[in-house]
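Hi C.,

You asked whether I'd gotten around to modeling the 346-residue construct. I have! Everything is below, sequence then structure, no commentary in between.
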Amino acid sequence: MAQFSRKSRTSFNPAAAVRGTDGFLTVSCAADPLDMRPAWDALEAEVRKRSGARPLVVVIGELHDTTAHKTFRQGGVGRLLNGASPVSLACGLEMEHNLVDKALADDFLYRIPEDLRERISGPDHDGRKLIETFHTLCLPQEAPAAYKNLMAFYYHNNIPVHANDVAKTYSDSQCQIDLRDPVTLNVLRRQNDNRFQSWLMRLSCISVFSPNGIARRNTVIFEQGLKDLRTKNVDVYVQDCGLSHLLGQTACDKKYKDSLTAHFNRAGVDVMPVLVTAPGWGPNDVPRESHKILAEKGLIVHGLSDARFFSIQPRIEEIEFLHSIRDHSGNEIEIYPSQNALHPSI
């Protein structure tokens, strides 16, 4: 089984992050945007400092199309999993919670192969069947090679994962919250939210990208993630999300109070927001109401490469870029074969 390798790691700098005059704890990779070791050092140091007494939820905000952001998550989780004092952890995914059910119901516009149907049927306590489904049937539009590589990393390292996002419908290039789904509907009903009640009268208008859509998705991701954290009883729970879910977004009126960080904090959970900066995404781009918790409990990762990749590009371009990141980062990440990454013998 392929494993995360630490053989080439020669040092660990627990003081990689510095608290600036603005109060934010920040680590910079600007000296070499492809070398992620300073960012991994900072993440590892902060998590190990805070984990133990009670579970820690690390919410990592990323730009989904930025390969370095996904690779930062892969290496960061690997550090926590395989360090001198490994922590028990699980990962929550910003992914439709009913993805496997949709596959089994042949909701991918074609009948899935019978061998896959056999592998993904039945209970899925650790998310391996979810990863099987994703890897076989889904083609991510953004940073596809890095995304598939991250899922293969979770799979081969036996890291429990759980899809926590709302169910979605797709039509006419629109993506909307699917209120026919009982899990999504029941979570939102419990909020007793007047905005939600009005949406019931216009179901086709709940875009997953709108401020209200993001707010409601955050409610579901939070509740699903908190339930998964309590079920798995781990030291650290790493929840991934797009940057607008993390703390909100000033320009699009996505409010801090509706963010994932705010949800976990209000629930009394020890939460650590990790803001991975990018053009148009920094402390000045999130609501000022979020600055207090970002300064007190968060980490800002600055200077990673902002190279973006999409499924319409030749796959080899992103794979070569992944190899460059690995080379600059001390060979600390595993790159899995693009085909049959989960089952090389098939």
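If it helps when you're writing up: The two ends are 15 Å apart (CA to CA).

Thanks,
B.
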